[in-house]
Amino acid sequence: MAVSSASGVFAPNDPPFKPLIAATDGSNFTYVSLHDRVPHILTDVVNDLFAAVERCTGPDAAISEGKALTSELSRLKHEMVTNKPLPPLDDDGVGDIAAWNEWLAKYFPGAAWYSAPFLVWEPYMYRRIAALFRRSQHWGKYDCFAARKEATFRASMTAVARLCARVEALTAETAGDAGSPEKRHVAFAELLQASLWGNQTDLSMFPDLSSEALEEMQARISSGANHSKIVANDTERVWQIASQVRNGRIDIVLDNSGFELLQDVLLAHWLVAVGIAGKVVFHPKRIPWYVSDVTNSDFHWLVDAARDPSMVGATGLSAADEQALKRLGTRWAELLADGTWELCDELFWTGPYGYRYLPTEGRDAWEGALLKADIVLFKGDLNYRKLVYDLEWPVTTPFVEALGPIAGRDAPAIVALRTAKCDTIVGIDGARAAALFAQQKDWVSSGQYGVIQLSPGRWQS
């Protein structure tokens, strides 16, 4: 089908290019995800719940219910690996199940795991996991991913405290009368790119990430060693817009908790301190999602851990770094309390639709929030895939064209900060892409390369 680049309108099941689907010959990343990576994640969920049930000191009914949930999760995994059709979701009272089931019935009736597009079966799986827990009496608020999220952050505390001290000093150098435009320009680029590379710490993509690997990854992020691997870099264009904003509104559609969230929070801290942002709205997930995605609880947990590092058993921090961490944590709690920072967990972010459907299917998020922003940052791989739609786009397709209806002149500036972990990508110079493919066939899904891409929206000249 042809698609108008002006409107970008197409049906979810009739896109202009082929969607990513798990090839049965095992030749693509989607197949590896469905055959290996995601079943591994489900096994971890089953094992985590089994251990929680074993530790449970609640009533017998809670233990029985936990065992039943373990069986349901195992059944979900069996359906996946044996390529069964995707059944409708059972209503859990969260408020979006009807939309999910109507979408499945209308656009993907009878779809099975290996024939459904990647952007159908993967979010469906996480929504089904959440529904299983939400429908239970005793495990309704249980986050089966929380222990892993918190453990990876605990393993990061030395890097966390050091980064907080660095950003506190950077803020002092650039806020108020101390900050020249040139200094702010450099600081913004550093913080924006740190926010990009924080996306490498993704537990849904790297479920076996060890403490040693995490520390090595964080060292590269902090040193700037990765910046040559930004294959589409609109940092300067983003700064041209951000430098014009005074006490404006910045929205951040969050991705991973822990170390990545810290980078996002540090960027938001600086934007407020230097007067670019008068308000920052963070958009976490309302339900546990993609292993490490941020929920409201995860956000508050990070702030509390910064205010009181002993809460997470942090040891070995230098006195100066620990005090900087505590000061920033206290400041973040104040920003949340006075409304300068706000959390908005719209259901659309865990719904079935791609983001080109925000103006029609996601009005609570689009009209109620994002249209009020000067700049919206979309973090991470899944948000990127939902922004441009998960298709075999020609890699040279302009980012603005792939966004479709949300890239208009009435829209905010949209910035995608994404470490590439899936085969969908747009806006890449053809010669650069060819050289990368010749060097590393799977560079697009390796997690080693990133993009900072801009749709200027109402800021376009």
From TrEMBL:
GO terms, biological process: DNA damage response
GO annotation, cellular component aspect: nucleus
Domain Damage-control phosphatase ARMT1-like metal-binding, residue spans: 35-432
Superkingdom of source: Eukaryota
Gene: HRT2
Enzyme class: hydrolase
PANTHER family, sorted: DAMAGE-CONTROL PHOSPHATASE ARMT1 (PTHR12260)
Single Gene Ontology MF annotation: metal ion binding
Protein name, entry field: Sugar phosphate phosphatase
Keyword Lyase (UniProt): no
Keywords annotated in UniProt: Hydrolase, Manganese, Metal-binding
Enzyme Commission number(s) from the entry: 3.1.3.-
